[in-house]
């Protein structure tokens, strides 16, 4: 089974902070809660994180909104819905995680905007591509049947050895419902599956099947190799290699923050509300900025003046030492 079907960023989608006014948001026998009251309370709890999210969304939409359209978001939503077993199953999963279809689409939009930003700002070197090519294994297509216990897996292997159809047994027995609907078939590259599954699968030749159940954290698998293509030349595989390298970078939160920070620093962000003034500090603080109060008072110097200053300080220290000796 794949390590993860979704990689999402947790956001408080759908929440809108109202503008300041005297309008009543709610009332009771105890009194009224105004929009001012509500705004101040929201600032104290989720204000900075929400403002950060809204700013990032606005800046990235301005840059990449022509690529990440409503149609693209809807298509991704449908893809994930299908992978999770249909509309009802998907809505149940979203409900358990606190999402509605609308605010989950907001999450998809933010992820796609970040993906476009990383693609735009990432320049892969020839050396990087060559190294990745050397380690590259082409995507393969295998079929598997996942069951909970080893005894059941062994019984299915016996049936297969006696001539049973793999796809039919997968459809009838596999706990991996997403692949079971397709006769157990799944296409994957190196690093996309759990280690035990991947090792057993890549050891097979086309048409071969595992003779013993393969145990993973998900249960017991019977695996059959369907298609195992040969590795192409560097030129033939370059597009695939670049996609894999970008996927790796998109899984690196530190790299994503580096990319987003660069974009935010060029966006001329001004936060008028002093209580929320630190909302973008994570993205706007640069290495050149002082880390301590002491460093903030020091003037930046080039290497040559620093050397001369050091020489002057050293000379002053020697004079002080001479004076102290004379005094003694």
Helices and strands in order:
Layout: E1 24-28, E2 31-34, H1 35-64, H2 70-83, H3 87-96, H4 101-121, H5 126-134, E3 140-147, H6 150-161, H7 166-173, H8 177-180, E4 185-188, H9 195-202, E5 214-216, E6 219-227, H10 234-250, H11 253-265, H12 281-284, H13 293-296, H14 303-327
Antiparallel strand pairs: 1-2, 3-4, 3-6, 5-6
Helix pairs in contact: 1-4, 2-4, 4-11, 5-10
Catalytic activity: [protein]-peptidylproline (omega=180) = [protein]-peptidylproline (omega=0)
Keywords: Cell membrane, Isomerase, Lipoprotein, Membrane, Palmitate, Rotamase, Signal
EC number: 5.2.1.8
Short description:
The chain has about 325 residues and is α+β, with helices and mostly antiparallel strands. About 55% of the residues lie in helices and about 10% in strands.
- β-strand percent reads 5-15%
Measured as a percent range, the helix fraction is: 40-55%
| Count of folded domains | 3
What topology, given as strand order, has the largest sheet?
Answer: 4-3-6-5
Return residue spans where pLDDT drops below 50 for at least 5 consecutive residues: 2-21, 289-328
Give the helix/strand class.
alpha+beta
Overall form: flat
Count every beta strand, where a strand is a DSSP E run of 2 or more residues.
6
- Number of alpha- plus pi-helical segments: 14
| H and E string | EEHHHHHEHHHEHEEHHHHH
Radius of gyration (CA) equals 29 Å
Mean pLDDT: 83
Largest sheet: 4 strands, antiparallel
Q: Give the N-to-C terminal Cα separation.
A: 81 Å
Family: Belongs to the PrsA family.
GO cellular component, one term: plasma membrane
Membrane topology: Lipid-anchor
Signal peptide: 1-18
């Amino acid at each position: 089974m794949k390590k993860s079907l979704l990689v999402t960023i947790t956001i408080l989608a759908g929440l809108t902070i109202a503008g300041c006014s005297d309008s009543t948001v709610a009332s009771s026998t105890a009194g009224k809660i105004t929009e001012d009251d509500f705004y101040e309370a929201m600032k104290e709890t989720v204000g900075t994180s929400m403002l950060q999210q809204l700013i990032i969304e606005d800046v990235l939409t301005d840059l990449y909104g022509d690529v990440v359209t409503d149609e693209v978001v809807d298509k991704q939503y449908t893809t994930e819905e299908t992978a999770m077993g249909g509309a009802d199953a998907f809505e149940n999963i979203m409900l358990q995680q606190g999402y509605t279809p609308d605010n989950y689409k907001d999450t998809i939009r933010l992820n796609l905007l970040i993906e476009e930003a990383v693609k735009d700002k990432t320049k892969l070197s020839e050396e990087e591509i060559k190294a990745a090519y050397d380690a590259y294994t082409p995507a393969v297509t295998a079929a598997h049947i996942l069951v909970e216990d080893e005894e059941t897996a062994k019984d299915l292997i016996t049936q297969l050895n006696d001539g049973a159809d793999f796809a039919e047994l997968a459809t009838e027995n596999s706990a991996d419902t997403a692949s079971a609907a397709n006769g157990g078939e799944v296409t994957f590259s190196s690093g996309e599956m759990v280690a035990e599954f991947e090792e057993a699968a890549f050891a097979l030749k086309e048409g071969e099947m595992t003779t013993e159940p393969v145990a993973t954290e998900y249960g017991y698998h019977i695996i059959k190799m369907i298609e195992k293509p040969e590795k192409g030349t560097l030129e033939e595989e370059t597009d695939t290699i670049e996609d894999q390298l970008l996927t790796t970078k998109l899984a690196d939160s530190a790299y994503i923050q580096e990319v987003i920070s660069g974009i935010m620093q060029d966006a001329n962000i001004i936060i008028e509300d002093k209580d929320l003034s630190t909302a973008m500090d994570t993205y706007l603080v640069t290495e050149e900025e002082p880390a301590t109060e002491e460093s903030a008072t020091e003037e930046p110097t080039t290497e040559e003046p620093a050397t001369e200053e050091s020489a002057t300080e050293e000379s002053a220290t020697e004079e002080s030492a001479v004076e102290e000796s004379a005094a003694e």
